[in-house]
Amino acid sequence: MVLKSDDFLANEIIGIIGAGFLGRTLAETLIEHGFPKEKLMISYGGKPSTLESIKKAGLIGNITDNKVICQKSTIIFIVIKPQSLKELKNLPFTNNSLVVSCMAGISSASMEGALGIKVFRIMTSGPDTIKRKKGIVAVYPQNDTLINILSFLNLRVHELQDEESIHVFTVGVCLPAALLIANKIGLNIEDSIETIDKEYCGFREIYYWAKNVLPVFDSEKAQTNYIEHMSTEGGITESIVNSLKSGDTFLDSLRKGIARSKEISTFAMFALTGDDKSND
Ligand SMILES: NC(=O)c1ccc[n+]([C@@H]2O[C@H](COP(=O)([O-])OP(=O)(O)OC[C@H]3O[C@@H](n4cnc5c(N)ncnc54)[C@H](OP(=O)(O)O)[C@@H]3O)[C@@H](O)[C@H]2O)c1
Fold first, then answer.
1. Which of 43, 56, 84 to mutate to test the pocket of ligand 1 (most atoms within 8 A of CB)?
2. Going from the N-terminus, what domains does the chain have, and what CATH number goes with each?
3. Ligand 1 in contact with 82 (CB < 6 A)?
4. Is residue 52 predicted with pLDDT exceeding 60?
5. In the predicted model, what is the mean pLDDT of the chain?
6. How do 156-159 and 14-17 pair as beta strands?
């Protein structure tokens, strides 16, 4: 079924808080798929380089203050890094908007505790896969409007039964970068996938997705750039990549990625109160 934005998004105003790599990709993809530009609001943290990228994406006219985004949007995507979350604490979020966190590792309970409203979570694959219409996304808890929007963006939706599974899914979307390094080193991948699949049914499917989205690179530098683009500083991809580079097995590096996701989760409340541990 092909969804048209005017069918189910006609009355929606979408706000994207955090127009970085992922936030801009969501904004551009929405517009590319027919969502009206005038109904899209975005914000960023003030970095001149980010403003340049927003300009390049043709979205300068969409920049809006976070407070206005909260007041006017019916759907809000939060796409900042966990360590910036404390900056959103006093914004006028309400349950009249569908608020969706795209942040890795931060539980809906932490978000709800911080913002005082119900928060849905999604975990997307990297911006490059979304741009190539090959993205996947996990959703928790289930919400029809959200699933419709994500499907409209050509993302293959995985509806999670429990929030804990998001940690394993997150490692799954980091697999493209991990596979590139593991293949280069010559590590045993299949057995590790098998092991994780026994704990999280569906991991093998994500592995096949990851193999399918691996681009072909014309140089070592292009491959290094790709891995860097996949990584958020202090995030899960970075922890898997560092683990592989330090000589761990593929299974151990995946386990470290899962552990890092859980660790970021426990740091969430520190991030909200300004404790620097969130940046570790
Ligand atoms: N990139 C991925 O592949 C990926 C995949 C899945 C999930 N995620 C999650 O998505 C989130 C963003 O990742 P990213 O890679 O897009 O990082 P990013 O490029 O650093 O984007 C984060 C953006 O948030 C902006 N920001 C900071 N404080 C803000 C504030 N108070 N109000 C509005 N915007 C603010 C930053 O603006 P400035 O640049 O001006 O500081 C930056 O542009 C992370 O939580 C990550 O876990 C990322």
1. 84
2. 5-159 (3.40.50.720), 165-273 (no CATH)
3. yes
4. yes
5. 91
6. unpaired
